[in-house]
Task: structure prediction
Amino acid sequence: MISAELQRLTAEMGKTSRKRIATLFLMIAVILSASVLAVYLLTLMVQSAHRKVSQDWETIDALTMALSAVKDAETGQRGYLLVREEEYLKPYTDGVAAVGEKLDAVERLAHQGQLGETLAISVRRLTDAKLKELYDTLELARAGKLDDALKVVHSERGKVVMDELRAIIEVERAEKRRQLAGALAYTRQLTDYRAVLLAGILAVNLGFFIWAYSHIRREISRCQSATDLAMRERELLHVTLSSIGDGVIVTDVDTKILFMNDVAVHLAGWKREEAIGQRCAEVFRIINETSREPVESPVDKVLAQGVIVGLANHTLLIRKDGSEIPIDDSGAPIRKKDGEVRGVVLVFRDFSEQKQAESAIRAARDELLAANASKDHFLAQLSHELRTPLTPVLATLTSWEVSDELPPAFLNDIQMLRRNVELEARLIDDLLDLTRITKGKLHLSPEEADVHELLQAVAGMYQSEIRGKRLRLATLLDAQRRHVKADPGRLQQVFWNILKNATKFTPEGGTIEITTDNSLDGGAIVIRIIDSGIGMTPDTLSRLFKPFEQALDDRVRRQGGLGLGMAISRALIEVQGGTISAASEGEGKGASFTVTLPTIEPASPSVLEAPNPVLASAPPMSATMNILLVEDHADTARVMSRLLKALGHQVKTADTVAAATDILRQLSFDLILSDLGLPDGTGIDLIKRVRETSDIPAIALTGFGMQEDINRCLEAGFDEHLTKPVNFQKLEMLVRRLSQRP
Result:
């Protein structure tokens, strides 16, 4: 209840203080507004002067660049007339190409009023005349009439035109320089005025604020007595009202209970009349949930420390009937005006539902972790089981493709089968890549890479599919800065995904365009792949880079696939510092994909100088090797043995760890090729036994392709790791490399 004294003081403060303070703030607002307006107007004048300076510089630059382009063209003409070699015409062609753009810039400035229209017309006329003279002499020289060409040159027809062009441009540049000097002086003068104005405004505002502060402080001092009384009256009311819904106990400095609300009565199990006057520790009995030891009362802590305190977790309240409930609580001191503690307010709540929720969350989290681990194990096992039978199929198709024994009519069918087997392997890799990405374990091998060569390599790999649909592929690789620090294989994977989609969703006879440029600031390279295909709706674009979302679009679903390619592509690009985006004007209007990557200065030869980087980097074929092939899959063992023998190697096979160990005791080999999953153990077990006595080169062959699988093989003693289905060209390269090892 508010006292009469508080009402009187409050009324007095309302009559005298609010009006004065409002007047002060109004004055502050007026002065600040005037200051801001003055600075704003002067700033507009400075900006206008800066624009005039920029326009003069732009005019001078435009005239200079136009004259420079004509000079470049004249230099190329003179070089060609002297040596009559086409390569000396590059300055001429570059200059002619640039002249049009520069003259357009000059005429644009004339239309804007920065140049005279007559001057722009004269520059255009003289430039055209000069280019006509250059073109005529070059045509005569190309036709074998060098003497006639030289006569044109010596006639000074071009010199007269050039001298006149130089003269009018120099006159205009001199005038613009004069104007520029005046504009710069005017800009500096305005800038000085603005600095003086700002300093004056600062001084005036500072003085006024000091004066206003002193007046406001006096008003605050006058109100302090009323505020102190109001705070004393409000403190108990505020604490009590803010505790509605929780248990509230108020004690004096002797910890005797003065007040308990209904919630506190219910939680403690005491009647209010029994609890009032009791010491808090007798009513509010608390123990540690784990140790069962008594916990110090928060009321005692508040009285001892004079600050707000809270209980630690795992606290139980012992009710009067002996039952227990988990609680969460806090205590705060109640102070007099002079700061002396007059009591404690204790607020607590039943924590049972939260405890149950925490237990449920922990159980759900454990269940999710177990399910995720099972999923990862299942994917790894599924990958192994799917890859293993693909190895003999892919190896057989590869050998048929390069063989001269089969009829040529079978070649297209064999290539079709091989591509579909490789696609199956790519889908498996996509599933594993998605797992690596979600776990943050995506492995990259960054190096210097030429984006143009990567794009050309991908386009070459997909030529048969493009020709099969009679599509027109155009490449406009105009980027000057084209080298990046990235994983070339992963970049090829991204470009392949985009080109595959463009080919898949573009009808027969359509077009696909691949372009590059350096149009962004900072030297980035921008790669665009644009098709005339079925296009995308806004809904499709919103889901394009989300895993498995492809299945929701009927048009896309009919084409097949898991919907992982673009999600993986985004992760691969972003982890290498780039961006990827897609756009489409709608259904039937095609689509475009844009990839940006930061560029670097090339420091080493291109990574793709050879048509086939795998074979090009392989050392020359060595002499026949004795190879031990350890593989329990009969078809894989038979096909790989046949292919290795076809290369001139001697091959011995084993299908268990025990059989391989026995053979190694009896015979010596130059190389071991071993599967990991064997009936009586693993290839890891085998290589560990071998490494106890020998350093014979060894390659692991396995359907497990996660990075941890590769690391485990290399740490166990294998020199290389190949994931099934085995790329036979890569296997051949590794065999050659290891055969050269000393």
Q: What stands out?
A: The chain has 23 helices and 21 strands. The first helix runs from residue 4 to 83. The two ends are 98 Å apart (CA to CA).
